[in-house]
Amino acid sequence: MANLRDIRDRISSVKSTQQITRAMKMVAAARLRKAQDRMTDARPYTYKIREVVKNLTERSNSDNPLFRTSENPENVLIIVLGSDRGLCGGFNTNLFRIVENKIHDHFSGHMKNGNLSMICFGKKAYDYFRTRKYPVIDHKIGFFDQLKYENVTDVMNGIIAEFKEGTYDEVYLAYNEFKSVIAQNRRFEFILPITYETDKVTVPEFPSIFEKKVKNKEVTDKPESESKKTGLKPDVDYLYEPDPDTILDYILPLYVNVQLWQASLESYAAEQGARMTAMDSATENAGDIISDLQLKYNQARQAAITTEISEIVSGAEALSE
């Protein structure tokens, strides 16, 4: 059995760790409150701009390059949103495993041919994929410390320009969507080229590269009865100034930027929730360890006292004889 000094040192060490985890939990809880407010405030705008793009697309025959699809996409870009710091449970590893599975299942040929590229947001994402020899062409460390819309547009506008030039045929986005403080949804979404489904406003989670939805240019001729079957609202006449095509040319880059902005807000809030949960669990575990060590300390102390008493009694008996 360990001596009393060793046990006391361990108890002191665990108590120090417990203070750190408790403080980190409180910091994460404070950040989570602000992150949740920003995320929930942005959601209505994000959902509405999706609806606006969908309605405009139905009424337009625009040939905007952001609609450009390829039957055999060669160059693929994957954007991964991780975190800069650890101690947040499975927040990063669970998402990274899903990204790896998607790459192995759908893009293994692209990776072998050198046609797969990755951009990693957060130090953990960059370190994970770089050390595993994935083709990381760019990384953003400290991005979430200064989470601003301007920083998102700087990144996304460059990607949009490269997509228009044909550098990439498809762009995907992987991130953790905030579900609750203790749970996140891992998302792997198809963001470029822009597609939509006639019965949904939201972007599909992950359409297969062989079964992608393409822009339907004949939706405007759909009869009202068919719209009712699909659950769409009846067609409504709008006045456009100057015209739907011009409005689309302006709003589509904004739409893509908003997708990355909302994903960044979701990811940051999910990170704080995961860290708060992990640190709360660590604090409780430290308390359990301290209780066990305290019990061992008391047992060792009792054994030491018993041994001393036995030695004193034995010595007294020896002297009396």
Automatic annotation (TrEMBL):
Subcellular locations according to the entry: Cell membrane; Membrane; Thylakoid
GO biological process, one term: proton motive force-driven plasma membrane ATP synthesis
GO cellular component: plasma membrane; proton-transporting ATP synthase complex; thylakoid
Function comment: Produces ATP from ADP in the presence of a proton gradient across the membrane. The gamma chain is believed to be important in regulating ATPase activity and the flow of protons through the CF(0) complex.
Gene: atpG
UniProt protein name: ATP synthase gamma chain
GO MF terms, alphabetically ordered: ATP binding; proton-transporting ATP synthase activity, rotational mechanism
Membrane topology term: Peripheral membrane protein
Record family assignment: Belongs to the ATPase gamma chain family.
Major location (coarse): membrane
Subunit composition and interactions: F-type ATPases have 2 components, CF(1) - the catalytic core - and CF(0) - the membrane proton channel. CF(1) has five subunits: alpha(3), beta(3), gamma(1), delta(1), epsilon(1). CF(0) has three main subunits: a, b and c.
HAMAP family: ATP_synth_gamma_bact (MF_00815)
Keywords: ATP synthesis, Cell membrane, CF(1), Hydrogen ion transport, Ion transport, Membrane, Transport
